[in-house]
Design brief:
Layout (H helix, E strand, L loop, with lengths): L4 E4 L8 H12 L1 H17 L8 E5 L2 E8 L2 E9 L4 E10 L5 H16 L13
Parallel strand pairs: 1-5
Antiparallel strand pairs: 2-3, 3-4, 4-5
Length: 128
């Protein structure tokens, strides 16, 4: 099974929602951050084959990475573009089910990415 490339969705030049969320999580809860990074690594390893309890499909091509730390449920919403590319589009902390507004936001980002993959794919700038 080929490796899945995992990239961050970029809204505009300064807004990379999941990366920003992860940076804040790292500051507030290092262990939860590490669990999220491990889940993203599993997504890269297994891609479309990743299943519950770590991943699940929500609807309209939007999937969720499911991370639980104590009583806190962390979710990273993602979608696939082609066979071996997963795009991390949205992240949240939740208590119950993923709110409809969050799923709708992920769907809008999926459509924007499909219309302009290059413009919405975060590429880390080379360090000078």
């Amino acid at each position: 099974m080929p490796q899945t490339d995992v990239v961050f969705y970029q809204e505009n030049r300064n807004d990379v929602p999941v990366l920003d969320w992860l940076k804040e999580l790292r500051r507030s809860d290092q262990r939860a951050y590490e669990s999220c990074v491990a889940a993203i690594a599993r997504l890269a390893e297994f891609g479309h084959e990743l299943r519950r309890p770590l991943a699940d499909i929500l609807r309209d091509g939007i999937y969720e990475l499911r991370i639980r730390k104590g009583r806190v449920n962390l979710r990273i919403l993602y979608f696939f573009h082609g066979r071996n590319l997963a795009i991390l589009g949205h992240a949240l902390t939740k208590e119950d089910e993923v709110p409809k507004a969050d799923i709708e936001r992920a769907i809008r980002r999926k459509r924007a990415f499909e219309a302009d993959p290059v413009g919405h794919c975060y590429l880390e700038e080379e360090k000078k």
